[in-house]
Structures are given as C-alpha cells and as structure tokens.
Design a protein that fits this description.
mainly alpha
C-alpha cells in the first residue's frame, strides 16, 4: 500500500506548489462565482434573482449536510493513518455509511416537506417539484466531496482541486446556458449538477484506498463525528438562521429587497472563502500528519503567511476597484 503510493509522493508539490494550486482553484471559484452572480443579476429581474440565489444557497447547505460534516474528520483520520491500509479503509467505510444514512434521510424529508420548503425559500410553491431533485443531486455531490477529502488527506490535493475545479466549470457553464433562456429553476439544477458529475472521476480516483476490512466501522463513526461535530454545528446552523431571516425579510418587505441583500452577500462570500479552502486542502492534512512540535509550528507558521498572502489580493481588488466593478457589471436596480 505504501509502496504503491511512492511515485505519487515523489511528485507531490511542496509549499510553493500547494499555494499555486490553491490560488488557481480559488481564482476559478471567484471567477465562476462572479460570472454566475453577474449573469443572474443582469439576466433576471431582482425577484427572480432572489429566487435563483435562494435555491443555490439551499443546494450549498445540502452539499455540506449530506456528509454529516465528516469531510474534515476524513482528512484528519486518513492523513494520520500514515499508510495503514486497514485504518484508511475503516475511515472511508464509516464516512460512506454516514453519508448514506444522512442522504436517505434528507431525500425522504425533501419529498415530504417539498411544498413547505418551497414556500420558505421562495415565497411560493413553484419550486415544490425541484426541492427533492436538488436534494438528490446535492447528496451525490456530497459523496464526491468525501472522495476529494480522501485525495487531499493522501496529499493528492492538486488532483482533488482539479476535480473540484471541473465541477465549478460545469456548474457555471450549465447555469449560464439556462440563465440566458430565463430558466431560473433549470439554471439552479444545472449549477447543482456540476459537483455531482465529478463523482465519475473522484470515486475511481480513491478506489485503491479501499481494502477489505475485518469487523465493523462503528468506532470510526464515533471518531469521525467527534472530529466533525463542532465544524458541522458551526457551518450548518448559521445558514439555517440566515434562511429564517431571509424568509422573514422577504415576507415583510419584498423579493426585490431580498435580492439586494443576497447580491451583497454573494460578493462578500467571494472574498472570504480562501481561508477555508487553504486550511482544508493544504494545512489540515499536514497538521494532522505532523509528529513533533517543531513540525506543528512550521505548518502553522507557513499557513499564517500563506493565508495573509492569499487574502490580500482579493481584498485590495475590491477596495480599489469595487465601485467601478459594481457600477460596470450590475444593473442600476442594484
């Protein structure tokens, strides 16, 4: 098992290569996000923009919830296994079981509550039929996330990020196509489908990490959930409160006013995601694999420097050119 990975280890990028890969991935994420945001704001009326964006945010929340927040736990446990084939297989099996249980529960709930969720998200029942569809697609995307987490933990983050970049490009292209046809629901489904389609690449990429195991993976369930509970609570609960706030906002004011909130929020998100991307794709696996205090200190120091370096350019861009960019690319209604 360890020998089979030797060629990959020999070709792994160092600190500089990791930063370049993450910078490229983040750049593509920003670019696709900006294109979809600008296109939807330009091509849709404010009310339709709010409708479309609410479905995208719901899909993003489902992508995260479908894994039970276990992505970070998978990265940590697989990286810490350091070539123990059975330990890696137990962790992956436990993560797949957690994903399967949660995905099934989400799908059942989405069917039973589709009308209420449509009212809650969009203020009407037009999206009733698409709620279960988005749930199913997002569950598949969650499985692809788990596979990419395994690749990241095995220090194959460049491949993981290439797979995720492909998902971004597919999402942007599909959403753009339907936005030009003024089909906001189809655009939301297309955007959700991009990451799900990457399962065709990510799942085969981790097949060699699976080995027959003895016994059950129940202990690994507890370990993964222990690592992921805090992250899951922090990452999943605040969006729920925001969904409630946006629902009240839309009901009290209008979908047009909600569109203003959502547009500002989307722009802000583009400028704040780099820290999470860098920590998950680069720092976490190296931090988990560190064996001494000096290694931990080196990883932490490098991470702080890299985060500052990656965060400053987007901040500078919006500070210097923000008014110009917004004035040139968004309708006067915003």
């Amino acid at each position: 098992y360890a020998d089979a990975d030797a060629p990959r280890r020999a070709g792994r990028p160092g600190m500089g290569g990791g930063i370049v890969n993450i910078a490229f991935f983040f750049g593509m994420k920003v670019l696709v996000g900006l294109i979809v945001t600008v296109a939807s704001a330009k091509l849709l009326e404010p009310g339709a923009f709010a409708y479309f964006t609410q479905l995208l945010l719901f899909t993003a929340w489902l992508n995260m919830v479908a894994t039970g927040g276990s992505v970070n736990g998978v990265v940590r446990e697989v990286a810490a296994a350091r070539g123990d084939a059975e330990a890696v297989s137990r962790t992956i099996l436990a993560a797949l079981q957690i994903w399967g249980v949660i995905a099934a529960a989400l799908l059942v709930l989405s069917v039973l509550l589709s009308n209420r969720l449509s009212q809650f998200l969009t203020g009407g029942d037009d999206a009733t039929f698409v709620i279960p569809v988005l749930t199913a697609i997002s569950s598949i995307a969650g499985l692809s996330q788990l596979c990419c987490a395994v690749l990241t933990a095995r220090k194959r983050a460049p491949l993981s990020m290439r797979i995720q970049t492909l998902g971004l490009l597919l999402s942007g292209a599909g959403a753009g196509w339907f936005l030009m046809k003024d089909a906001k629901i189809s655009a939301a489904v297309a955007f959700a489908a991009g990451p799900a389609l990457t399962i065709l690449i990510s799942l085969p990429a981790v097949r060699h990490s699976l080995r027959p195991i003895r016994g059950r993976a129940a202990a690994n369930w507890r370990t993964l959930l222990h690592h992921s509970a805090a992250f899951f609570a922090v990452a999943s609960l605040p969006p729920l409160f925001l969904f409630v706030a946006r629902s009240v906002y839309q009901e009290t004011l209008s979908a047009e006013w909600l569109a203003l909130w959502l547009l500002a929020n989307r722009i802000s998100d583009l400028n704040t995601q780099v820290v999470g991307i860098y920590n998950l794709q680069f720092s976490l696996p190296r931090f988990s694999a560190a064996q001494t205090r000096s290694e931990l200190a080196r990883v932490m120091g490098n991470s702080v420097l890299a985060i500052v370096g990656l965060s400053f350019p987007p901040l500078l861009l919006f500070l210097v050119f923000g008014n110009f960019l917004l004035g040139q690319h968004f309708p006067a209604a915003y």
